[in-house]
Amino acid sequence: MIRKVCVMGWPITHSRSPLIHNHWIKTYGIADAVYERLAVPPQELNATLRSLNDWGFIGANVTVPHKEAVFAALMRHDAVAARLKAVNTIVTTDMGLEGRNTDGYGFIANLKDRAPFWLASDGPVVMLGAGGAARAIAAALEAEGAPEIRIVNRTRTRAAALVDDLKLKAARIYEWTDAASALAGANLLVNTTTLGMKGERDLDISLDALPARALVTDIVYTPLETALLRAARARGNPTVDGLGMLLHQAVPGFEAWFGVRPQVTPELRALVLADMGLAEEKN
Ligand code: ATR
Predict the structure, then answer these.
(1) Is the pLDDT of residue 283 over 60?
(2) CA of residue 259 to ligand 1 center, whole Å
(3) Which of 62, 151, 193 maximizes ligand 1 atoms within 8 Å of its Cβ, making it the mutation to test the pocket?
(4) pLDDT tens, position by position, 79-105
């Protein structure tokens, strides 16, 4: 029997998950597997989840706008999804469908891959933004041992809700206009807002107070080098772009569905970049 997996979202046309997983299916010679896009309007989400196995799917990825609704609809979750109340990966277990969340794993794995010298426990981290991605990243950074998480968000109440909901132990909230002062003594600066994305305004914060050894990363990957990463690189900070998070978050799902732990290779990165109409940038 063909083992089918899908990515469900609404709309779903832009998802790069099929490209990533079908590359691995080919690379590892998994003959009976296929990964598809499934456009699921919100009003059909619950029925889709109920029928998923009957339609031949052994699992799924979940993207915008369904991550929270899938969490609510499923009976079982792993610890990370339970903490985030959001699901990006569905696995069929003996007990039925289980919701997992690998976004935070992908974020950390990307840093370990591209900046192996960096340690979360070495100092405070500064996170710009407090949306869904920020939640996954804050939880993962705390789990990695970050001693303090400084959250800078335009809407302060949203940052406060993030800290409350995740019960972050060592978080500090900064006003958006105070971003520059949050950077003093920091060991990591991560942008989780949409600023800097193609078509959006650039992030415009002064990096003057940021230590030169601090790692700077962005979850925006179109363009690959955002204005933030360019400014950081110009003053000598190590930087990591956001494409690797997308690639690494796919690893645990593929392993759970097909029993092979796939590698994030330069070849896969080039494939996704080409699909986005981008080429690797040379420093
Ligand atoms: P995601 O789930 O992808 O993280 P999101 O939940 O829409 O997306 O979150 C977007 C983040 O970008 C939020 O932190 C948002 O700030 P608010 O909480 O104040 O809305 C931030 N953001 C978006 N546009 C912004 C802008 N023009 N200036 C500052 N922050 C912005």
Answers:
(1) no
(2) 36
(3) 193
(4) 999 999 999 999 999 999 999 999 999
